[in-house]
Prior knowledge:
This protein is an alpha/beta fold.
Amino acid sequence: YVRLCARRGRSEALRLAGPMASKPTPVTSTRKDVVGGEEVASVEEVTASGKFRAQISANVKAHKYDIKNPDQLERRAKAWGMSDLVYQDVAFSIFLKKEKKEKVILEPTSGYVPNASLTAIMGPSGCGKSTLLDMLADKKTAKYTGDIQVNGRKRDKLFPRIASYIPQADVMHAHLTVKETISFNFRMKNSPPKYLTVDLRLKLLDVILEDVGLLSVKDSYIGSTEVRGISGGQRRRVTLARGLVALPQIIFADEPTSGLSATDSEQCVRALLTFAKTQGVCVLTVIHQPRVEITRLFDTLVLLTSHPGRLVYNAPMVDTLAYWEKAGFKVPNHANPTDYYLDLVTPGSPLDETEHFVKLYKSEIQPKVADEVQQHLNKEGMTTLEILNKVRDNRSEVGGDMPPIRDSRYGIGYFAQFKVVLARKLILTRRDRRQVVTKFGASLFQGVFLGLAFFNVASNSIQNQLGFYFMLLQVGALSNMSIMPLLIDERTIMKLEVSDALYGQFIWIAVISLVDTILSVAANLLFTVLMFAISQAGWENFGDVYPWSLYNFILFSSLFMAIAAIARTGSTAIQTAMPIVLLFIIYNGFFVTRASVEPWLVWLIWISPVAYSLEQIACTIFPDSPIIDLNGYICTDRQTVIAVVVMLLEFIMFRIAHVILLRKLNNIQR
């Protein structure tokens, strides 16, 4: 039966084997058949794949819960969550230069967060909610103090593999669809099992999309102010879904319901609850004034006051009503409890009782929290690598062989990262035609315009012909300045994704360089061909001119990429580039030559790529012309070698500067 199916195609064999998975027959043969010269699946492989498909189908069906009562949620047998979080005396302060003193943002804070729990972090503005979350998530770039452990161990380089951070800002590519955006995160964070086909992966993503209310818009663009797409609330849910598809041990969500309606907020929190309870995930979320129905979904409330940030409550959510009543502040009838709590612990509010609750916390709750923290601090459990291997083993039982776990902060290898990032870049380039149209449109216009300006240049004087070649070099070099604003726009997304350990920064540089170089060189070739054809410069010289024009163009493109790594905005990048570009173009061997420049400025000629390129073109086309001596050109093989070496060194210097500056500057500050 299987062999007949195989003759109809591997995919058809796998599809028809699906029903067999429910009652698999013991198979001892691992022999593979050859049909039409192609090796096809063995009986064992087909049955295993059918099992995986059946398991996926069962998981999707089992995912449907009526979770009005959170107690209905049960931990699944193959749940991947197995990590607890404990933190002790975590604090943060900043130094005020004008006042010359320390300002405390968050006083020492301690707590324990078990797996399979949903924790709400709340408090008035300035209390340090996001600061606490960033420190726990290892996202805080400023220096802070305290001890944070996962399973009783210090966070190591693999921590990004098991943690997922959902930021406040919704920064995504406007021309990707909702499903493509989420699928990218899934592919970068998870090595696929053997039998996880593209179709099955998309079905798994549909489950999460449905959980967060995005299934109906999965094929819509993310959009922006210039591109029509989904609403702001839906973009917020896409950011949430990107964190969920990483299948993490711990989720840190910074205001995941910001900008959402009350109903949508509840749906998102229920999705987090489902992940926490069914998969054993540890979820911490900063949230503002949730409705009563949302409040009841949380296991624990961490409540802070401000000026400075201090704990006033860190205990089960179900105990809050009794705690406040015992403190003499019973929640009024028909009032939202969390709103009332915030009114009481917000300094300067009409109901301000901040100091009372700070003292009450220190006497009633803090000793219990301290005991719980001591029980779990330094009590070593599974390492991050052991957790990843355990999750891999569980998935292998259902999905077939999986790649070995890499001892790296990245979920997949560098080559796999390159392929996924490159595929996304090609999609964005194909859909956002502005870059391509602008680049080739400008090349077309410049080629025609300058070609007409130098029409029949071959019959003109050598000085005019040299001016033609100078304009070709100059305009070609400047034509790629438009890349800087585009690189700056993409840089923010890249920085966020690199901070989440989706891929390495060098991968992004390699992809951007590859795609842009191909497009830019093609546009530059179009410009050069048009200029030659319309001006009738003589095709016999094209082979001598174009290589130097290309070298010059690529070198300037590298300069623009380095400047884009420094500048914060596109306009700043252009302003920064202009002095350097003018320096190279003015000391060009045409307007200012070795024969005319002041001796103490001649070094500018020796570093100008335009001067080297023009000199080599002139020496090749006009070797016996008086203009060679007039402009001080050096027409020797040694000078050609010097030109190549200097331009190559400048190219390498700009590329290295791009990599270093991109890593050091304009990073995400938290």
